[in-house]
Amino acid sequence: MDAVLLARFASVPKRGRVLDLCTGNGVVPILLTTRTQASLEGIEIQPRLADMARRSVQLNALEESITIHEGDLRELVKETGHAVYDAITVNPPYMPLNGSDLKMNNHQAMARHEIGCTLEEVIQACNRLVRNGGKVFMVHRPQRLGEIISLMREYKLEPKRIRMVHPRAHLEANMVLIEALKDGKPEVRMLPPLIVYNEEGKYCEEIMDIYYGAQHVQRTTEGGL
């Protein structure tokens, strides 16, 4: 769900270049093809996931729209140059390495824990790669929001929109979506919370819209599917 919500939250330009850091199996750039004609790229450090992303691109016949890089996001600027992207999306590992339980396979550990890159290194890479006036979109955990805002401002990425995601209305948020502007002025909007499940344990209308489209929501509320 993280990647789907990030792709929907991101207000990417219609043209230009858009990069997805920590792309995993390529879900975010694939979803973004429905909303932009920009050149889309993803970078993934794990060879297995990078291969999955390339195959997903091929299966969806999106080779002309999406390029997948296998490599370290900390080194990408050496290949691309500075400030070449109009927007960046990122769904980074959430958990700091210190004190984390790493009793899982290497692929899972790298996806969830800051083994291949730290939060600061991710934000630093965004600063180097996005142009002045370009946007960065991140999904992360609310527990680290203070750290995220502090690091973004340190690297000249000014938070502009923040939205909390709650599994249910009465529960604490378990995700946060953040939009930052390179060299932007200090002014942030706190958007209404996004609730995933209603009291009946079903997806709320906005989540249904995100996954299936507004038409499906209308049919459902009118007694259709």
UniProtKB/TrEMBL annotation:
Molecular-function GO terms, alphabetical: methyltransferase activity
The domain of life is: Eukaryota
Q: Which residues form the signal peptide?
A: none
Q: Which stretches make up the Methyltransferase small domain? A: 4-140
For this protein, the record's InterPro entries field holds: SAM-dependent_MTases_sf, Small_mtfrase_dom, tRNA_Adenine-N(6)_MTase
A Pfam family found in this protein is MTS
The protein depicted here goes by the name: Methyltransferase small domain-containing protein
Tell me what organism the protein belongs to.
Phytophthora kernoviae 00238/432
